[in-house]
């Protein structure tokens, strides 16, 4: 989310899947779209039929590669070098869409004199503290303005201080899923783009060394293939043509994942592909409602609609919470209306102006409460209970052993799932039982397994990869004691409320919640449509709201998620609309409902030039109709409908009134797309190439800064890191591995390994290796092989295939291994879990683990059993010289402070 959010204003996909058919060129990277998103891939094939160029960049040759015009095999974890090379090509050949860049991006803004780049500080940006492992972003600011020290002025998850004890301005991405941080004042700018410290010139300098030769040495992509891709993107972008980029978890699951997406965002802004038909960036979600689970979040640091969770020491009351945002330009200035309407939705008549609308009842952040920190808290006895719903951490999460250690330290565990997954049975048949590290008799965790209803057994909405809410109707009733998630949470809340006496003041926060959902049937199933209507919201007369601009800060409206406001406009479930394609235009506005306001392409004001005219007739999408005095076109304009192109804000104007008629990115406080991020990301205003946490390759661009200096790391006995690059011992793990998914199985296997037909189609855990690696390591097709890292070793059947190709990296041959991640010891098809291999090293913006690029060894034969497995791993650790300090340096040279 922060990669897109800081770049454009919202963390969702900028376009919709059907619009890919309008593309002239599609770059698919970080995704095997044909196999992982086969339904959406039909629109890629439609584009190809119309003459579009399809490019696939991926370590493996897949079904996506097979139908692409060109597949480029790259080394896992090197994508920023490749994208940086494309950015350098666009800038050095003067191929950017100049009029778009000048008018619609922050290219002209001048950065303060104190800023120093990675090119100045050998891999670090200014403001880095090597002991804390974090940046003070003060020196990243524009000249003439100041961004809030943290997102929206709120506190940080880990309040950083310097080693001298001084508080430091920091950047945190809490709200970057729906807008970059606010800043006040008007930066100095140079529309000629010639000033040496304007963003455009800094960008050129930052990527000047990302040459085709460097791309070849880092990524393993030939200069000829690189040039072909660069030429295709340039030729198919501009006034009359557009190119799209699609990515998935192949980009997000890295210690620099947010910066991968930032690099793509920079490229698309330079080429003028954002907000335009056939352009944009499509963030492919691998599950039906992953987008929904971030919109109405399962994330610890967000409230619905990407409102940041309050912090314990800074957000003392509602006024302090909204203060910085209300003084900024753009739609985040209305945060008070969004928040008050949310509080009214939750506490109804009990939320009044006199009690700050119950703002003090919201939880407060006191630090990092993410998944991996929670597991450490479990191991250390700080977290006694755990709900696991729709997840299978015992095999499906990085360092699965650490996850099981956390589960074994709990007092109680609730697992709701379709089958008896590994997380529910770890206490009796987990790998640690076999090795002797755990004894069932010693595990005190009381496990409650509650059978869950499947999606066919419940009503509800999905929010899919293009921000589209689609309603699904119950097909069959759940049997026996299976229940929907909605049933579970509603009745759990009801029972908790029944047990509270109300004598304690803190009980009121639960007892006064609006918990009056209608139920039906023998099991008292709550109405899913009533929940959706509550999320949409009502005015003071209980009439459904139709759009989020109707929300008010005086308590007269209530809305469960402001970006979803309008989904039940006029009392109609808009997400249930299914008007056939032949009865509407290609944008299909009556198929489901997309947030916000049923817009299908975000920032679509950028599809017209500053005067409001389409850049070309061929790529017309929305435009200014002077006769009618409004924006019109094929989609709902992502702009104030009656704001003229020549509108200029008055001095001191804030909120939407502070956005000019030529500024399409209305969620940003300057209305522009950000090539440079002065605040909102914790690891740099520009993406820079760093090697993965564990890599057999040294950082060619920054030899003294191997890894992302701001990455999150937790070195523990069960989570030791490996040496990397030129560090002694790295040759013990000479190969790269990457994980991938199959069409036949779903994520950690809980929905597929128990199904006979899917288990028959993909019956065994396997390891993909090239013929050359098979010869080098004595591996036979169909036989067993063992992959080893510093955490564990797993086995799988060998698949020798030319889909895995050796790469020439810096003058030496490098081999890569592909490992599917669906298996575990339970179900009809069983096997070792890929996540046994993976250490916990995280992207600092979003706390996501690095599963897509690691270093390992591979050897023929099956892995050892019982205690012999631990001895094998210990032997590898000893050979590599691994201890608690290995791989933990933030700055490789701690004397360098980054300015």
Helix fraction by DSSP (H/I, runs of at least 4): 10-25%
Rg result: 27 Å
Which structural class fits the helix and strand makeup?
Answer: alpha/beta
Tell me how many strands there are.
Answer: 31
Biggest sheet, open or closed, and with what strands and sense?
A: 6 strands, mixed
User: What is the percentage of strand-forming residues?
Assistant: 5-15%
Mean pLDDT: 93
CATH superfamily of one domain: Dimethylsulfoxide Reductase, domain 2
| CA-CA gap between termini | 29 Å
Strand order, main sheet: write it out: 24-26-25-31-23-29
Question: What's the total helix number?
Answer: 25
What's the overall geometry? globular
Query: CATH topology of one domain, which one?
Result: Dimethylsulfoxide Reductase, domain 2
Detail the poorly predicted runs. 158-171, 894-899
Please identify, by name, the CATH architecture of one domain. 3-Layer(aba) Sandwich
- Main CATH class of one domain: Alpha Beta
Main location: other
Subcellular location: Cell envelope
Pfam family, one: Molydop_binding
Protein name: Formate dehydrogenase major subunit
């Amino acid at each position: 989310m922060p990669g897109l959010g800081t770049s454009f204003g919202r963390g969702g996909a900028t376009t919709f899947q059907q619009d890919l058919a309008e593309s002239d060129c599609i770059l698919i990277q970080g995704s095997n779209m044909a196999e992982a998103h086969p339904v959406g891939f039909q629109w890629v094939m439609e584009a190809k039929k119309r003459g579009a160029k399809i490019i696939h960049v991926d370590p493996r040759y897949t079904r996506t590669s097979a139908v692409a015009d060109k597949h480029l095999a790259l080394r896992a974890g090197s994508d920023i070098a490749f994208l940086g090379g494309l950015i350098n090509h666009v800038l050095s050949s003067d191929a950017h869409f100049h009029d778009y860049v000048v008018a619609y991006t922050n290219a002209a803004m001048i950065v303060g004199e104190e800023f120093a780049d990675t090119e100045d500080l050998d891999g670090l940006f200014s403001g880095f503290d090597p002991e804390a492992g974090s940046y003070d972003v003060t020196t990243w600011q524009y000249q003439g303005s100041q961004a809030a020290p943290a997102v929206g002025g709120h506190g940080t998850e880990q309040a950083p201080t310097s080693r001298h004890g001084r508080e430091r301005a920091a950047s945190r991405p809490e709200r970057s899923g729906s807008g970059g941080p606010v800043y006040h004042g008007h930066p100095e700018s140079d529309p000629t783009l010639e000033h040496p410290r304007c963003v455009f010139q800094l960008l050129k300098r930052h990527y000047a060394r990302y040459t085709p030769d460097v791309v070849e040495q880092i990524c393993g992509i030939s200069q000829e293939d690189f040039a072909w891709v660069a030429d295709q993107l340039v030729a198919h972008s501009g006034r009359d043509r557009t190119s799209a980029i699609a990515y998935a978890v192949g980009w997000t699951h890295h210690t620099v994942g947010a910066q991968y997406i930032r690099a793509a965002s920079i490229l698309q802004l330079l080429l003028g592909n954002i907000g335009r038909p056939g352009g944009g960036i499509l963030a492919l979600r691998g599950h039906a409602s992953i987008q929904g689970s971030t919109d109405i979040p399962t994330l610890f640091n967000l409230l619905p609609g990407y409102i940041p969770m309050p912090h314990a020491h800074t957000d003392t009351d509602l006024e302090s919470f909204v203060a910085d945002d209300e003084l900024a330009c753009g739609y985040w200035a209305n945060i008070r209306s969004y928040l008050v309407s949310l509080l009214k939705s939750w506490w109804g008549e009990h939320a009044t102006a006199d009690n700050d609308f119950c703002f003090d009842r919201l939880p407060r952040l006191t630090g990092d409460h993410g998944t991996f920190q929670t597991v450490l808290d479990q191991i250390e006895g700080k977290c006694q209970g755990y709900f696991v719903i729709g997840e299978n951490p015992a095999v499906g999460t990085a360092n699965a052993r650490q996850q099981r250690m956390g589960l074994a330290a709990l007092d109680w565990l609730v697992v709701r799932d379709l089958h008896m997954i590994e997380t529910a049975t770890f206490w009796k048949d987990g790998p640690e039982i076999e090795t002797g590290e755990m004894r069932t008799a010693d595990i005190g965790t009381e496990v409650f397994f509650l059978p869950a209803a499947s999606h066919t057994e419940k009503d509800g909405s999905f929010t899919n990869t293009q921000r589209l809410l689609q309603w699904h109707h119950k097909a069959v009733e759940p049997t026996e004691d299976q229940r929907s998630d909605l049933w579970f949470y509603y009745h759990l809340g009801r029972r908790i409320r029944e047990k509270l006496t109300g004598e304690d003041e803190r009980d009121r926060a639960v007892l006064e919640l609006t918990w009056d959902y209608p139920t039906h049937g023998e099991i008292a199933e709550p109405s899913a449509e009533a929940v959706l209507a509550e999320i949409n919201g009502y005015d003071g007369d209980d009439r459904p709201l139709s759009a989020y601009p109707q929300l008010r800060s005086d308590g007269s409206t209530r809305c469960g998620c402001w970006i979803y406001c309008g989904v039940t406009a006029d009392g109609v479930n808009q997400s249930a609309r299914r008007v056939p394609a032949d009865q509407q235009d290609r944008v299909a506005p009556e198929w489901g409902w997309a947030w916000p306001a049923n817009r299908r392409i975000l920032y679509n004001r950028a599809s017209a030039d500053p005067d409001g005219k389409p850049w070309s007739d061929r790529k017309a999408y929305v435009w200014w109709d002077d006769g009618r005095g409004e924006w019109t076109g094929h989609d709902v304009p992502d702009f104030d409908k009656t704001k003229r192109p020549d509108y200029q804000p008055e001095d001191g104007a804030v909120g939407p009134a502070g956005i000019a008629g030529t500024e399409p990115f209305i969620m940003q406080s300057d209305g522009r797309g950000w090539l440079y991020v002065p605040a909102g990301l914790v690891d740099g205003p520009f993406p820079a190439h760093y090697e993965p946490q564990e890599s057999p390759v040294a950082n060619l661009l920054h030899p003294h800064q191997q890894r992302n200096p701001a990455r999150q790391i937790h070195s523990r006995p069960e989570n030791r890191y490996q040496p990397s690059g030129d560090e002694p011992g790295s040759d013990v793990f000479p190969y790269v591995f990457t994980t991938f998914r199959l069409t036949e199985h779903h994520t950690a296997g809980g929905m597929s390994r128990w199904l006979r037909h899917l288990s028959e189609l993909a019956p065994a855990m396997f390891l993909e290796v090239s013929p050359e690696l098979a010869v080098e390591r004595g591996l036979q097709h169909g036989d067993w092989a063992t992959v080893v890292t510093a955490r564990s070793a797993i086995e799988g059947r060998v698949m020798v295939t030319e889909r895995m190709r050796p790469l020439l990296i810096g003058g030496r041959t490098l081999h890569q291994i592909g490992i599917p991640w669906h298996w575990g010891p339970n179900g009809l098809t069983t096997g070792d879990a890929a996540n046994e291999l993976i250490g916990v090293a995280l992207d600092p913006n979003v706390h996501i683990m690095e599963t897509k690029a690691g270093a390992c060894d591979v050897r023929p034969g099956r892995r050892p059993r019982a205690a012999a497995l631990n001895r094998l791993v210990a032997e590898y650790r000893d050979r590599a010289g691994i201890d608690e300090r290995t791989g933990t340096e933030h700055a490789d040279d701690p004397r360098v402070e980054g300015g």
